[in-house]
Amino acid sequence: MNDARKTKRRTALAVLAIFAVVSLFVVRLVDIQVVSAAELNKDSLSKRSVSQTTYGSRGNIVDTNGNVLADSVDRFDITASPLLVDTFERDSEDGKSTVEVAVVDAINELSVATGATAADITTALTEKPGANFAYVAKSVTLEQLTAVRALDIPWVYDVLHPSRTYPMGSVAGNLVGFIGTDGPQNGLEVTEDSCVGSANGTSTYERGADGIRIPGSTVTTKEAADGGTLKLTIDSDFQWYAQQTLAQRSIELGADWGTIVVVRVSDGHLMAVADYPSVDPNNVDGVSSSDLGSRAFSSPFEPGSTMKSLTIASLLDAGTITPTTQVTVPGRRDLGNGESIKDSWAHGDIRYTATGILTNSSNIGTSYLTDSLSNKETRRDYMTKFGLNSTTAVEFQGESSGLVRPTTEWDAVTNYAVQFGQGMTATSAQMASAYQTLGNGGVHMPLTLVEGCTMPDGTVTDLPSTEGTRVVSEAAADTTVAMMENVVTQGSLKNALTVPGYNVAAKTGTAEVADANGYGSDRIISIAGLVPAEAPEYAIVVTFAKPDTMKTSGAVASTFKKITTQVIKTFKIAPSTVPATTYPLNF
Amino acid sequence: MSNLAFATPLRSPAEEQHPRHVEIVSSREQRRARPRVVYAVVVVIGLFVLFMAQLLLSIVVSDGAYRIAALQTSQRDLGREEQALSEQLDLLSSPQNLATQAESLGMVLSNTSPVFLRLADGAILGTATAADAGESVITGASGSLVPNSLLAGVPLVTATPEVDPAIAADAAAAAAAAAAAGTDAAGAPTATPTAGSVASNPTTLPSPVTR
After folding, report:
1. Chain B residues near residue A503 by CB distance under 8 angstroms
2. ipTM of the complex
3. Which of A247, A249, A324, A447 could form a disulfide with A433 if both were Cys (CB 3.0 to 4.6 A apart)?
4. Chain A window 170-189: which residues touch B at a Cβ cutoff of 8 Å?
């Protein structure tokens, strides 16, 4: 019995000891696995794992033919560790011996390879001698990187630095915008960031002692997302021609700025939106901030006589005039209160038809035609339906809506002036959109700059609206275009505007520019037109603001003709087979 | 430990009823039934083979990792090279560059009257007029007015000049004279003119000789 009791006691002791040890282990286990698990995991991971940023590629911006306007490219930052900067041994060319390379020689070699000055590199390396990191050169190309790598300098490293380049420079530069160091800064790069924008991802992997990735250890913590491709309606070749021609003439005229807008009338797609001064997105230094955007969208002005075509179309639609409506136009129309309407040239009584008034751009004549539709509200409704007083469907960055004041604010002069484009403002884009309506049988199509956005998975978004709204009847629109043909065939600029073999419809505009002291000597001159006139395909608006050497719309004619001819060539418009419509100008 | 041990008889009643002679030597069947060394050997070898297979497999896998790493690097490098080349292509095919190059080769943009050749019946639409040499778009006023800072380093292509043997000989003679004059700037490469090669000018692109 004594033995049995001893055995029992011993057993109990053993069990207790085991329990004690096991519970000790359990406590430690819980501590490791639960309590401090996260911390330990982190420590262990940081010892063997490498975290890396995977770069999503920002989407390209392309023109209607797929030519690249904005491209994402790899650039590299060359970095160095100032701490380790020292002379080093380099294999000689035959590979058998080594040559010692002094720091100053290495810096000179780096300078040649990267294009940074030796002085800058020396400063970067010696500024903080104890630092482990310094930039030698930023954003170098692959070619330069290869040259740097070939130098085989042990304390020089490289880091990927995704970047943006604009292969066509200022072609559509005012539209595309640019990317600064802090992301998109201007233009479509900003407003279409939801399409082309990309997101960087992160992933970690574990590596062996020699730096090679251990198979199957890659953990993607965040997927990188590429941006979509933004396709514009712009034709880059034509856009270049428009910009070159515009810039040449603007410089000749001493104009402050100028625009050319070309719209396809069938769907409202913009073929070219040229701005002068233009912006080279690759180098925006020195460009004044007011020139960075697109004046065609952001600068409203009093359009002047190009508005008369819209007035004629409205009155034709209302049925109050015909192309041959007869008006005896005096040299001056008194409106009482000492106010009057004048024409741009002095004349006595002239017997004009409505076509004659449009062709000779008579303000007084237009005012008498306006009397046939006295309801101001109706006339203002026509203007807003043509797209005035509201931004175009493009909704470009900083776009202006122009201004047509409510009819309650129209005084006796404004009542007529708005009908010939003074006392109201519009942008070049709005004028082009209004002429698109005239060319398209009276149906206003939403002005379109973006053809679509193709995401990496193939889905297409941002498709333009194809819904048009009728502004005036087809007959009214077609008749207006036919009347505008007489500006080219019978007007004072017929020699400068006629394109052999083609019927062209056009209307000139020479608008006075108001400043703080009222209307001064500055002018904004423009010509808006359609080609071919018998079945319009493209609407063209050319505008120069505040020219110095010539202040009448005649200065625009040569540019308008060049652009029209280029439209014919680029978009392959066959010569007209019908003669131009002719209406009598006088009676 | 249990009380059952005391309650159970040590021998079964059957054994008591049929007493048998007990042999110490095991029977052949018993011996056969016992585990033999061969099994142990088979198991050990099997395990060894398994371990070896696993080892080899991991060697192959990690060898693959090196290959993958090498191939991924070369894929990345080739991708970058392709990208750099297409970037350059896009730049060179930009409209202002094409126009500038074309005009420097003596081409002009005819913009007086558009003419089309209809392929269906060979009809000429429009009135063909000869282009005027003064119609150039770029060189007309003040060069390209649609700037592109990336084009700064792109050389202008000039029309291939007729290689005049006399001029080539002169150039060779001049180079030889310069070398003879002892302008031995240390490290400056000295060109050795070879007969028949096109004299290259660092400011223009080397132009191929078409035969």
Report:
1. none
2. 0.80
3. A447
4. 170-171
